[in-house]
Amino acid sequence: MLEAVLLVGGQGTRLRPLTVTTPKPMLPVAGVPCTEHQIARAREAGVTRVVLGTSYRPEVFLDYFGDGSRFGVELVYATEDVPLGTGGAIRHVAPHLLSGPDDPVLVFNGDILSGHDIAGQVQAWRDSSSDVSLYLTRVEDPRAYGLVPTDADGRVTQFLEKPSTPEEIVTDQINAGCYVFRRSVIDSIPTGRPVSVERETFPGLLARGAVVTGFVDDGYWLDLGTPLAFVQGSCDLVLGRAPSPALPGRTGQFLVRPGAEVEPDAILSNGTFVGAGATVGSGAVVDGSSLFDNAMVAAGAYVKDSVIGSGAIIGSGARLDGVVVGDRAVIGPGNELVRGARVWPGVALSETSVRFSSDR
């Protein structure tokens, strides 16, 4: 048996207004919740049992996934009463684990879309007799991430959180949000208080001489924490750039769910997703965007690099570029919303105007 933990307790403040009513890991990425993509990839790697570490809106996960049988795994839920940080959340699920003290336990951050070799990471953990293995990926600009340099043998030498000066950028390897823990290491994390796995647990293991290794994989990786990244992840799945067993065989320019209505002269491109019950009117252009279920883009509207929430309406001739529109919001005809604008759920913009990110 191989167990995994998915940390899905975050509120996703950077993705508001989409997360006002829906936890970030349950937002549909190309029509499938991020958590479902992760469960499907874990199952593909041999995971048979998954513990969901929930906090914000835990009932949304239970209602959708149930006991996990529909998704080919056993699902167990561990809900935090108060947020405990990444390390505290991992320790909180420990009583629900069945693994022995020397067995591997996979831990995934709940907002990552990845194509890395999960089974290969577990095997590398075994081969190196590691206490913890970290999935690392290389990025061109690592300043916004935690840096993880390794030596010639793959052992982690430091943890450097978000460097502030050029001198601190000693590697392009970053913590990519998937770990293999020896079960006994999870049991050693303090209980009853917030713990940061990045700032406390991992540095503490190094200080004690534990074997902490890096598994470097240059496959697809994306942090879905911002609106533009969320749109990119959805498009990459539709275009087949990001692998997911939950959405197999995608290679087209767009994906339209059954029940959606798209007029023949509408143009969908660059990985656009159109959810069930959504409509796209005559002459509308939807470019690299995601329309949630029951959204409407009226005739002649132009929507680029945007997310349109469930039941939201984009009026005739409106133009949106890099915009997040919350559930049931209404953008009246002729409105122009520029990159960075966010419209909160239920808000109606009726007059013709240009709206910026301060508008709610």
The CATH architecture of the largest domain would be: Alpha-Beta Complex
Morphology call: elongated
CATH class of the largest domain: Alpha Beta
Low-confidence stretches: 356-360
The tally of strands reads 31
Largest sheet: 7 strands, mixed
Strands of the widest sheet, in order across it, are 5-4-1-6-11-8-12
Assembly state (oligomeric): single chain
Domain Mannose-1-phosphate guanyltransferase C-terminal: 252-352
Family: Belongs to the transferase hexapeptide repeat family.
Protein name: Sugar phosphate nucleotidyltransferase
Domain Nucleotidyl transferase: 4-236
Quick structural gist:
With 360 residues, the protein is an alpha/beta fold. Helices cover 19% and strands 28% of the residues.
Describe the 3D structure.
The protein has 7 helices and 31 strands. It is of the alpha/beta class and 360 residues long. Strands 5-4-1-6-11-8-12 form a 7-stranded mixed β-sheet, with helices on both faces. Strands 14-17-20-23-26-29 form a 6-stranded parallel β-sheet. The protein has a 6-stranded parallel β-sheet with strand order 15-18-21-24-27-30, with no helix packed on it.
List the helices and strands and how they pair.
Elements (H helix, E strand, L loop, with lengths): L2 E5 L20 E2 L2 E2 H11 L4 E6 L3 H8 L8 E6 L5 H8 L11 E6 L2 E3 L3 H10 L4 E7 L7 E2 L12 E2 L11 E10 H6 L8 H11 L4 E5 L4 E3 L3 H13 L14 E3 L4 E2 L4 E3 L2 E3 L4 E2 L4 E3 L2 E2 L4 E2 L4 E3 L2 E2 L4 E2 L4 E3 L2 E2 L4 E2 L4 E2 L4 E2 L4 E2 L4 E2 L5
Helix pairs in contact: 3-6
Family: Belongs to the transferase hexapeptide repeat family.
Organism: Longivirga aurantiaca
Protein name: Sugar phosphate nucleotidyltransferase
